[in-house]
Amino acid sequence: MCKNLLILILLFFRFALASGQTAEKSQTQLFQQIQKSKPDTNRINLLLQLGKTYLLKDVQNRYNADSAYLLFNQANQLSKTLNEPKFEAESFSDLGSYYFEVNKLKEGKTCFKKAIDYFNKTGDKLKEAAYWNRYGEAVPDSGLNNILIKIQCFTNARAMYLNAGDSLNAASEQRNIAECYSVQGKTGDAEKLLLNVIKEYKSIGYKKLQDTYDALAQICGREANLHKEFLYRMEAVKSMEASGDDDRSDYFYAKLALTYSDMKMYKESAQWILKAIDVLKKKKKYEDLYGDVSLLVFDYITLNQPEKALAFLDRISQEIPPSNLAQKVDLNEEFAHCYVQMKDYQKAEQYYLEMMRIFKFTSFNKAFYTNHEQMVLDFIYYNQTIGNFYILTKNYKKAGIYFNKILNLPGGVVRPITLGEIHQAQFKVDSASGNYISAIHHFELYQNLHDSLFNATKNKQIQELQIQYETNKKDQYLLLKQKDIIVLKNEKKLQEASLKKASLTRKIIVWSAIALLALSFVGYRIKQRHNVALQLQQDEINEQNHQLQAALAQQKKLTIEKDWLMKEIHHRVKNNLQIVISLLNVQSDYLDSPSAINAIQESRERMQAIALIHQKLYQTDFGNSITMKSYIEEMLGYLQNFTNSRKIKFDLSIDNLNLDVSQAVPLGLILNEAITNALKYAFPNNGAGTIVIDLHKTKDADIFLKISDNGKGFPANFNFTENKSLGIQLMKLFAEQLDAKLVFEDNHGAQIQLNFKKKLPIDAISF
């Protein structure tokens, strides 16, 4: 015993030397209590408690790891001396956790096996289940073999809890198994299991479902299914508030706010993150404060309110100054964001560089993080943030350095939404450096990730429609049942009336029975022969109906396949045009000649007009028809944003016309040429004005288009027939494709008129 006490004294002095005046009060108190204690079970408990405080710290620090081991081992030795097998099992469990933390897996398994064997021998199933759970929790998450061990541990614990009638803990073990599936990438299995956990919790009246809903939301976030993630986030908040368990309310509010932000609903995001910040301030828990402030500032900036964000930052940084390096990183980042929005790029860069300088001390440092996942998230976020800044300021070389750090992370680490953003940014970097092959590769990866998110949204809509369909079907079934009941009641009344009538005529029937029987026999023979003929005809009709239904089903299937193929073609054409447009955008940054820049801009606008046509085709279910009203409105929005012509207004008078793609494309290009020319030349010196677009069907069922403005008009002596400008020549060419009459006039401003006959889509023509 003297030797053991000497070890404790040495350990105490080592603790005091390492931590000095800043030693944690709880650890100091535990050391003092151990020194004063007798060598009994109370001392064992104190040793284990103190050992766990070191295990919760950074065990990569040799001092923390050695201290935990010495304390656990001392508790184990004292348990053996006192012949306390229960405490010996407890100390073996803690030693096992230590071995797993320092990556000594074999020793960790041995220690946990000894602890579990003790409770197995004593028949204490609840304790054995609890230690299987501790075993599973202690095994590291890295490596497939470790995950399989964790699943087996949690499965054993669940079976024992069920056997002992502990339904609550049994459901919790199933949640642990689901989290293991999620780590494996089996998100579908994980989601099914967690939904089953929700059912089990509800069946026993357990109301604290927020953590399970949170786990479901995390899975949907990894799958980029924002609609389902939002649903589960809302359920988590509802459950948290309904159960009255608001200890972590700031976390659930912040997660819901982040989901709103991902869905581009920034006003709602700001409302929820302010709730999270208020909770932290009331509880005086400031560890996560500046992380929440980051999201609030982002929301304000996206809502074009940088001054409001800057004022909030000044106020919060004075009221609650940053208490650690991580919070200083966040504060520098937020000031930088505000100055970017205010276009003070020099000051913004200073704050961004200071952010990265401080972040280097915290990056992948366990002293600043509770788990590895959060380390990776922060690493991605801060590198993406400064990379985007350098993209904005066209310093592509520096931007590429930061984006490549993210792209070099292992697969599956980066969220699909974020990974798509990084590929899109790297596309710009490669385009700027002339590496077009790599640029196209990154653009395709971005587009695939973007489309998968869109498809996830569409699948959600399809599921909702399916549910609605099944509900309507059930309602119709119930309605038919009610009608059947009414019919049966009416039939019953008729039968009763028939019986009364039969009683009155019974005497007559008796007297005429012989004659009726004879006639009935003859009638039966005739009817039997007639029924055989009818049955043959019915069989023939049924066979023809069957063949007709099969033919209709095949036709429907082919039609659906054709529609999907056409949509895919239009989608691919639109994507390819978008790649070319993006390449032209980047290329224009490197040109000095105004005429070359203008040529590229005009080419880009023409391609955008065509790309918008194909986008409309794959997003709607109208075959090869384009709704011209919405198409023109979107085109005008694009052109006005691109040319920054905010003083110019549009006066639209457009009928709800659907045109075949063969006419929509040339008409769209004529509109593009005419409107672009008006925006550029009709109102000099950035003046104000109005452009009128009139598109309608005439009495003769022709299509009439007029584009006019109240600008300076065409130049004097402008010859429309002999003019060789590319814009005029293109409009003439597209008018010929429409078989249309094109007229140019100068009527208090430029005016262009077009008249042509509407063409029927091929699939609308009957032969």
Major β-sheet annotation? 5 strands, mixed
Query: What is the CATH-assigned architecture of the domain at 624-764?
Result: 2-Layer Sandwich
- Helical fraction equals over 70%
Task: Outline the low-pLDDT stretches.
Answer: 1-25, 513-519, 762-767
What does this structure look like?
With 767 residues, the protein is mainly alpha-helical. Among the domains are: 1-122, Serine Threonine Protein Phosphatase 5, Tetratricopeptide repeat, CATH 1.25.40; 578-619; 624-764, 2-Layer Sandwich (Heat Shock Protein 90). It has helices at 2-19, 25-36, 41-55, 62-81, 85-101, 105-122, 125-138, 144-163, 167-184, 187-203, 210-222, 226-243, 249-262, 266-283, 289-302, 306-319, 325-341, 345-362, 372-392, 396-407, 416-432, 436-511, 513-588, 594-619, 628-643, 661-682, 726-737, and strands spanning 625-627, 648-654, 658-660, 689-697, 702-709, 741-746, 750-757. Strands 2-4-5-7-6 form a five-stranded mixed beta sheet, with helices on one face. Strands 1-3 form a two-stranded antiparallel sheet. Strand 4 and strand 5 form a beta hairpin. The radius of gyration is 38 Å and the shape is globular. The N and C termini lie far apart (105 Å).
